[in-house]
Amino acid sequence: MKKVTKKKGILEFFGIKEPFFKTTELKGKDIRRFVDRKEDLLDLKINLEFERNYAVIGDTGTGKSSLLLKFQQEIKDDYYTDYIYFSMDAKTDKEMKEELFRTILTRLLLMIISNDGLMKHFDPKEIYVDTNRLNFSISLEEYEKKHKEITPEIEASFPKLFVASILPINLKAKLQGKIGKETQKLERKTHERHTEVTLRETINKLMQKLPAPVVLFIDEMDRIIKAIRPNIDWIPEVIKLLQFTTEIMTNDNLIFIFALQPEIYEIFAKADRGEGDDSILRYVPAFKKISGFDIDFAREAVNESLKFAGYKGTAEDLFEDGVLETVLSAVKSNPRQFMLSLGNLTILAYKKNQHQVTKDILKEFLFKKFGETGPEEWRKSLK
């Protein structure tokens, strides 16, 4: 029988344990790949000590989410934290405000119920009522989206038609276990629909009992609004939603850190210079625009990625001299595009059975990607 020789896979070919380069936000074990941003992290820390809402502003792919996730990891022992990838399907200002408040209340309740040390500061019966009332309100809204107007008769019988639950089964059982036989009595108190006012009141009630501040990281908020309202000027809609946070800032126990797209930067910058309306600084008084890679930052990020992937060499062993600089120029310093390009270059080198990305490989890759339209500086560097 003919012996079949198995071709080495790409990981084995380069002698690594996992893919070199990550193009999504760094979280979990991948947060080890995070490099530099020391000044950005320090700015976040200082403003958090001043209990200020804060906005991290930058282009897609510049590392806003990774920065926030790294900062969340650094402060988790001193604050209660939650990271929210924002989602919204609101059509009116009223719906937008209520959806924001429901999102915040949901995450607070989940945080409280899942943390035994935190739960001891609250009455389990009160938390049970708050949770079920929120479930009831969300269920009514989901029902309305799929059906017609809800009549008083339908709403009266709606507890039997619940279609939403904010609690996983294990947390629901945990909460019911703390209450015991009184669960059924409390059930009757939960079937009252939330309004914007009652949502805000419930959030503030919970916040007043917290033993330490909660920091909520809000990501993708402006991108979601841009997506659901594509035919209108979406930036004022984002400002409006940021303004809503002031309505739940009656105490110092709730702090927001937002990741926002660069289109909004000039509004913050003008407000900070005192040019026109500076009201935005009431609800988000601190902000910073983060930049992409420079070559030193890029080289450090590559070396960290190689190290954590298990590569035995250095960036200079894998990439011929000048390759990193040319790629960085081609992608206009965007970190995500930079890492994506390096990953694609190593794939191309593997296909050519080469252990180093040479300038010839880079030339083939870039001209396939950009044609003759690339910047003059990197086209010259490839000659």
SSE layout:
Elements: H1 10-14, H2 38-49, E1 54-57, H3 64-75, E2 80-85, H4 93-114, H5 116-119, H6 124-146, H7 152-156, H8 169-179, H9 183-187, H10 196-208, E3 214-219, H11 221-228, H12 234-244, E4 254-260, H13 265-272, H14 280-283, E5 286-289, H15 295-309, H16 315-318, H17 323-330, H18 335-351, H19 359-370, H20 376-381
Parallel strand pairs: 1-4, 1-5, 2-3, 3-4
Helix pairs in contact: 2-3, 4-6, 4-10, 6-8, 11-12
Report on the structure:
The chain is α/β, with parallel strands linked by helices and 383 residues long. The chain folds into three domains: 10-23 and 294-381, no CATH class; 38-79 and 213-289, 3-Layer(aba) Sandwich (Rossmann fold); 96-211. It is 54% helix and 7% strand. Helix 4 runs antiparallel to helix 6, helix 4 (93-114) packs parallel to helix 10 and helix 6 packs across helix 8 (169-179). Residues 1-6 have low confidence and may be disordered.
Essential attributes:
383 residues, Rossmann fold, 3 domains, five-stranded parallel beta sheet, 20 helices, 7% strand, disordered N terminus
CATH third-level topology of the largest domain: Rossmann fold
The main β sheet shows up as:
5 strands, parallel
- How many distinct domains? 3
Uncertain segments of ≥5 residues (pLDDT<50)? 1-6
The spatial strand order of the largest sheet comes to 2-3-4-1-5
Order of helices and strands: HHEHEHHHHHHHEHHEHHEHHHHHH
Overall spatial form? elongated
Q: What is the CATH C-level name of the largest domain?
A: Alpha Beta
Distance between the termini: 50 Å
- Total strands: the figure is 5
Radius of gyration: 26 Å
